[in-house]
# Entry
Amino acid sequence: MNNSPELLHKLLYDKTAHKLSYSKDRDFPAWREELRSKLIELIGMPLPPQGKPKIIMEAREETPSFQEICFQFESEPDYFVPCRLLLPKNGEKPFRVMICLQGHTSGMHLSLGRPKYEHDAEEIAGGRDFGVQAVNNGCAALVMEQRGFGLCKASAGAETDCHAMAMQALMLGRTLLGERVYDVSRAIDALSCFPEIDLNRIGCMGNSGGGTTTYYAACLDERIKIAMPSCSVCTYFGSIFSLCHCQCNFIPHILEWFEMEDLAGLIAPRGLIVTAGRLDDIFPIKDTEICFSGISHIYEAAGCGGHCRLVTGEGGHQFYPELAWPVFHEMINKERTRV
# Structure
């Protein structure tokens, strides 16, 4: 006799149909369109409006490596997103740009390599200084705050604060993840106000919760030409469904329709670099490898098998810049060759 709701849920998962999972007998373009429509419905956010959002310029600062433009943009009425745009001192304009997303950390200042709270230096040493990395790799960087983190928390301090926001969003028919993806699309609209940026060469990257937003944003905004999600792409069953995770990861009804690998059909043929850690205890490597195997099959079906890669570090839940960036350069060099 079973008295465990958790066990019941796992038994129900085994019977779940995943109605839009990829199979070889599907018409790929038609399946892709249906997949996109269903994902938009499930995340509970409409596609953003066209056009430039309202921007409030705050300051311009100089460092030895880049010019830093501090601004905020209005993502939706009455909500502004804090940003920093880093423009390299060297290189040819307009710049390729990387959108940099922190996950469950103390905030976007980590992408700038600037510790603010206890343990921030450890986070930076774990590869969280995404904006600095992007500049060092020849890109401009748009460092932006995600809802629930840093300057966009409900309360001051280093701890993240997703619970209330995620539950409020669900009560309003939204998801917090959907709101974050929406902000990324509006950030791309905001980039059109900066002539230094090449809007045809936009990338997105992040670790953990930043990697999750990166993956879904690449699914829904084709202006993102290359995505580098870290410690976030994994089977739903092996991670979000089976382990303890923040409420911001959950999308109601998603398992009725697909597993995480299926969503890669919305990213192909654009570049996808999945990074993972062998010792990651919340996105287990064996389940990430299962997920990536499915992603690879989908990319092959789309005729672009070489456009996705799995990069695996030997540590835990962190970004691996020394492994991921060389693959990034390899991919964009192939991109130039194709053009």
Q: What stands out?
A: The chain has one domain: 5-338.
